[in-house]
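Reply to dn_fold:

You asked what the input looked like. This is it:
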Amino acid sequence: MFELKYKTPFEWTVPVLENFDAFLQDHAAAEKKASGMAVSMLSHYPDRKKLVRAMTDLAIEELIHFKQVVKLLQARDVQLGNDAKDIYIKEIRALFRHGQEVFFLDRLLVAGVIEARGHERFSLVAEALPEGKEKEFYVAIAKSEEKHKNLFVELAYEYFDKTEVDERLEEILIAEAAICEKLPFKAALH
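and this is what came back:
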């Protein structure tokens, strides 16, 4: 449906695989936060029936992903980590405009771009991992993130004019690329 402007180089996977336990801890935190974001969206927009249904399903799916990552952590005898501040999320959320409707549109589109970045990076992790259950898990997670990316843009089209959505999405994609270009490569999703 849309393409990211910044392509993460495969070399990004080097620190991920070098400290895969830390990456899993970060991934677990990201899934937990994604579930919370979906609950927040349906709570703030209870009058948007399609959104409420979609965010209910998404919150459950993200929590299942969280449970699956916790299972991987426990199999490696690694405890769940503390939720660290995510500079990427902080900076991309700074793109939100003020005003009820434009804020709603930005929340949808930023969420879609975040999911697109997750799809791209989980795909890279899947490619880098050796054959086994972790590789299979990341192949599945990447496919799921791709569906989520499209879901948020489809919801934006449901509630806003297509031209407005497309123009704002382009602006967000350009800003998101600039954010990603300056992030260091580390054992974290962002």
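Residues 10-181 form a domain with the Ferritin fold (CATH 1.20.1260.10).
Hope that clears it up.
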